[in-house]
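F.,

This is the one I mentioned.
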């Protein structure tokens, strides 16, 4: 089943043919959008300037850049942030438009790269409209700047023509395809890829969109031919405008939140990894969305990594089997290779969550669906004319498609028969993670100076206690896959009994502290008197998706609180946790990954964020405190 889902959009803009010529002191074409689409900044408005003076304003973002220069009725050459240049040159001083280039960190290695830029549609007070900007490469921009400097900044003229259109009313869309499940239609697995990136975008995110399409095609063919059983659950395939389309969809259809079991997103999955030292990162769900999904995806990704990495011992083992090629003839033990791709290894790593792509919508507390993303990083070609086919690798695209397809199909098919195997895997990984957190907790306590040991101990106890509670919820999440009363449910229940509880983990930490210090008891963990009034508040989300989206920008994030931990502070609100419970959960998540990854978390910052969310109308305080 396929449908086109039209949604409201913030703006809809289409460029047409646009070009920029230097006409004095000599003549050459500087930009032509039909040749290089990125040479015209997004949201540029139509204009026709037969002849205009060109003035170099340096960065063009501050008052000193314009000292002694008249730009009214002229076009400026600038290398600073385009939005600020529009404000300073066009709105404040009456310039007609901008010729822009950038001097960002990646430029020395890629001087001929066209960056993807956009101009503001209008000023913040909506009193002024943006005009236009043409975009040059660093090499071309610096050449023009040097030529102007050599001529004393005089005598340079350009001809500019921009053709574009803003569509009203603005709209966006989701294209949806569905493979219907055989029996369950309210536990959908949805695969996402976003379409709206700049005109090159081979990796970001044509790769994800192509992979979603190929997975849908391959699974449908295998099911139609009877080579795979039809999954029990529906599998949806979504091609979207990144983040905004999903947000608008759930705002328009809030009941749909209950239809989804999991989201797997693909955003940059085709990189030739040797170009730019890129790694295929795969996130686990955030701790606010504990789910078996992370372990399903991790197990499949790890098997692909091991099968597509050349291990010396593994090659020697294959050589022991009669009829097998020698280690020198077979590079990988379970190769997944595309005929037109490389034979590079598969450098993929499962990591704590990050956002900045489509799965973040599903993981939001107001939506509540566990989601993961496949996103390679770093990427020196992203959002530029270099995001083209030359730096893509069909082999890596194929491996990621295999991982996502297998994860989706397994999750859509799993039932009571699969639950014991899945539960045992989640159980084993839960023990690994809680053991790792215990190691971290003991090490930080042992390393703490004596005058701070009680403070650090409280943080360590929180880490192990929250880890135990988190892993119990992760294992418990697998129950949804099987009917009540099945044998798989019984196996899962027994494993839950064997997992450490928060209380037992905290007791073990107390025993470690006393053995470490020789003291007779561990420090008290009581909430301080100064924190008690705030700590006992119980917040709840206002169940209004559109209201959440409209009001969230009013929430003030404390400067020291990592944006992802701010996101998680809102996600952990469930109407039962107090402010202090939310702080404990967020702090444990940050300590699990490390301060280098998520920064430091304090109760004061979390409480401030929650108070601001209450003031914004995103949260409400339940009557009474705990």
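My design for it:
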């Amino acid at each position: 089943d396929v449908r086109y889902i039209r949604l409201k959009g913030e703006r809809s803009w289409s460029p047409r043919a646009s070009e920029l010529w230097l006409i004095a002191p000599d003549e050459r074409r500087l930009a032509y959008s039909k040749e290089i689409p990125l040479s015209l900044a997004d949201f540029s408005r139509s204009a026709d300037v037969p002849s205009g003076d060109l003035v170099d304003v340096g960065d063009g973002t501050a008052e000193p850049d314009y000292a002694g220069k008249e730009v009214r009725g002229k076009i400026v050459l600038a290398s600073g942030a385009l939005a600020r240049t529009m404000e300073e040159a066009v709105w404040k001083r009456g310039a007609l438009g901008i010729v822009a280039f950038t001097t960002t960190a990646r430029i020395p290695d890629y001087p001929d790269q066209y960056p993807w830029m956009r101009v503001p549609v209008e000023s913040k007070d909506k009193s002024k409209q943006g005009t236009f900007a043409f975009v040059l490469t660093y090499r071309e921009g610096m050449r023009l700047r040097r030529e102007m400097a050599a001529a004393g900044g005089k005598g340079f003229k350009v001809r500019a023509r921009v053709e574009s259109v803003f569509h009203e009313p603005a709209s966006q869309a989701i294209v949806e395809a569905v493979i219907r499940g055989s029996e369950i239609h309210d536990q959908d697995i949805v695969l996402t890829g976003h379409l709206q990136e700049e005109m090159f975008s081979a990796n970001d995110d044509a790769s994800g969109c192509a992979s979603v399409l190929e997975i849908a095609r391959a699974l449908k063919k295998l099911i139609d031919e009877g080579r795979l059983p039809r999954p029990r659950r529906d599998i949806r395939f979504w091609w979207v405008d990144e983040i905004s389309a999903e947000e608008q969809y759930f705002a328009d259809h809030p009941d749909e939140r209950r239809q989804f079991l999991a989201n797997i997103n693909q955003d940059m999955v085709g990189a030739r990894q040797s170009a730019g030292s890129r790694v295929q990162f795969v996130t686990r769900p955030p701790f606010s969305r504990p789910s078996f999904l992370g372990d399903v995806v991790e197990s499949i990704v790890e098997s692909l990594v091991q099968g597509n990495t050349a291990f010396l011992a593994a090659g020697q083992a294959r050589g022991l089997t009669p009829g097998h090629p020698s280690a020198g003839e077979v590079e990988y033990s379970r190769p997944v290779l595309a005929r037109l791709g490389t034979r590079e290894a598969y450098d993929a790593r499962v990591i704590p969550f990050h956002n900045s792509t489509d799965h973040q919508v599903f993981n939001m507390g107001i939506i509540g669906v566990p989601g993961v993303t496949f996103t390679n990083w770093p990427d020196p070609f992203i959002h530029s004319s270099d995001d083209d086919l030359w730096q893509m690798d069909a082999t890596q695209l194929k491996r990621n498609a295999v991982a996502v397809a297998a994860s989706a199909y397994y999750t859509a098919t799993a039932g009571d028969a699969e639950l014991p195997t899945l539960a045992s895997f989640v159980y084993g990984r839960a023990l690994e993670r809680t053991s790792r957190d215990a190691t971290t907790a003991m090490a930080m306590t042992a390393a703490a100076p004596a005058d701070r040991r009680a403070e650090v101990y409280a943080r360590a106890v929180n880490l192990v206690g929250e880890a135990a509670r988190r892993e119990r919820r992760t294992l418990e999440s697998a129950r949804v896959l099987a009917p009540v009363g099945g044998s798989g449910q019984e196996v899962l229940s027994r494993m839950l009994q064997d997992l450490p509880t928060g209380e037992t983990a905290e007791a073990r930490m107390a025993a470690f502290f006393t053995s470490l210090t020789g003291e007779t008891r561990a420090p008290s963990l009581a909430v301080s008197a100064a924190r008690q009034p705030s700590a006992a508040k119980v917040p709840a989300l206002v169940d209004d998706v559109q209201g959440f989206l409209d009001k969230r920008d009013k929430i003030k994030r404390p400067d020291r609180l990592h944006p992802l931990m701010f996101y998680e502070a809102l996600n952990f609100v469930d109407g039962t946790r107090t402010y202090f419970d939310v702080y404990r959960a967020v702090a444990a998540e940050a300590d699990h990954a490390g301060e280098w990854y998520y920064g430091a978390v304090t109760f004061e910052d979390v409480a401030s964020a929650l108070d601001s969310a209450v003031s914004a109308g995103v949260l409400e305080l339940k009557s009474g405190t705990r």
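The chain is about 40% helix and 20% strand.

Talk soon.
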